[in-house]
Design a protein that fits this description.
By secondary structure, this protein is mostly beta strands. The chain has helices at residues 15-18, 62-66, 95-102, 181-184; strands spanning 24-25, 47-52, 58-61, 71-78, 83-94, 110-115, 120-124, 134-139, 142-143, 153-155, 168-174. The longest helix has 8 residues, at 95-102. The chain binds the ligand Nc1nc2c(c(=O)[nH]1)N[C@H]1C(S)=C(S)[C@@H](COP(=O)(O)O)O[C@H]1N2 and molybdenum atom.
């Protein structure tokens, strides 16, 4: 998390230390990476559901989500195609807030996040709890643009950005791992940028 520590006298990390191996700083730009056609999502009918191995399968409307305590992410994002973007600000709700309601069952080990388009990505539960994942609808204080997954996307910034599903609509809890779209097409199962887990077979 991008906590400002200037007043403690600690030096701000230099660009080199903030870049995971093999990444470059994309600067002010923000590349768009979309495998499918960007959908038009109507917020009056859009819903987010959490299901599968949870105690209370739950569906939230857009109004439901905005009534929850807000949470934001301030920090860097890293795409497997080697760009990183520093100091992003996303706002929405922490996934933890939703999981307090849905309550994953003890046998659940993995999640699959699904977009309205059918795009999917998988993650171990540990990667989406304890302040590591968000459902977001603002970037830099403005509504999230359609091409970047607006109105609502998932954000899991400590993993490569393909784990951050644009146009999110469901998250399912499973008792096994189930590769998503890019994972079936050769990308690494977990995708930790600091371990450079780009492709199947990487560490
Ligand atoms: N629904 C959906 N989500 C997606 C993708 C996609 O193709 N479809 N691409 C992923 C990849 S590979 C990346 S790097 C990021 C890109 O997000 P951006 O276009 O906002 O930069 O979204 C991820 N989420
Ligand atoms: Mo990506």
């Amino acid at each position: 998390m991008g906590v400002t520590r200037g007043f403690t006298g600690r030096r701000r990390k230099g660009a080199d230390e903030r870049l995971p191996p093999g990444q470059y700083d994309t600067g002010a730009g923000w590349p768009v990476l979309t495998a499918e056609l960007a959908p038009q999502v109507d917020l009056s009918t859009w819903q987010l559901s959490i299901g599968g191995l949870v105690e209370t399968p739950t569906t939230w409307s857009w109004d439901d989500l905005r009534a929850l305590p807000p949470s934001s992410y301030n920090g860097d994002i890293h795409c497997v195609t080697t760009w990183s973007k520093f100091d992003t600000t996303f706002a929405g709700v922490s996934l933890d807030t939703l999981l307090e309601v849905a309550r994953p069952r003890p046998e659940a080990t993995h999640v699959v996040a699904t977009a309205v388009t059918g795009y999917t990505t998988n993650m171990p539960i540990d990667d989406v709890v304890d302040g590591k994942a968000w459902i977001v609808w603002e970037f830099g204080g403005l509504p999230l643009a359609t091409e970047h997954g607006g109105p609502v996307r998932m954000l899991v910034p400590h993993l490569y950005f393909w784990k951050s599903t644009k146009w999110i609509t469901r998250i399912d809890f499973l008792d096994h791992d189930e590769p998503g779209f890019w994972e079936r097409n050769g990308y690494h199962d977990r995708g930790d940028p600091w371990l450079e887990q780009r492709y199947q077979g990487d560490a």
